[in-house]
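Field reference: sequence -> structure
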Amino acid sequence: MKIIIIGCGRLGSGLANRLSKEGNDVTIVDNNSDAFYELDPYFKGKTIVGVGFDKEVLEQARIKEVDALIACTSSDDTNALIARLAQNFFRVPKVIARLYDTHKAEIYQSLGIQTVSTTAWGIEKAAGILRYGQLDVLNTIGDGKVDLIRVEAPMLLEGKTVNELFVMAEMQVVTIRRYGNTFIPTLGSVIRAKDILYIVVLSTEKPRLEALLGLI
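Structure field:
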């Protein structure tokens, strides 16, 4: 994929390093040339010094040819402006904007721009730890409505099948890790005590999940 990243801070540089390592054609833009020192020595992409919403800078980055653009400067307003410019003017197929303001993130999400809100994720993660300490929330999906949870199967689940335990639509076992091996279970898969279960669950159903696992 051809990807433009605007902003070479911790998120931008981390993404650039990883995406470049995976073989993508990455161009990263920042208005401070010193920011590029955050890039790893193996980074094979292109660096451009300039303002991320400057049309000439974006054309220098060959924005008309890219598959995706990620705006992750330190400014919500700048990221939103770049994202709208990329989506509406340059017709970039996939646009992502990092927004700290959760309200703005919801608005731009409704306009078809994918947003990453570290603030929203942090709030949900901290609240989840406080409310459901024994359920390890790995990720939150859909504005906090669905969680991916990791939990060790207790003894009371020994010999039970996935179908016996999670027949309701509100929660599903998607992966099981056992003795270092990970597999996708079928409804007939038998659960063993000490299995690591990866479960997707509606946030409102976490108390029921805890009860089902014998954690409360």
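Note: The first helix runs from residue 10 to 21.
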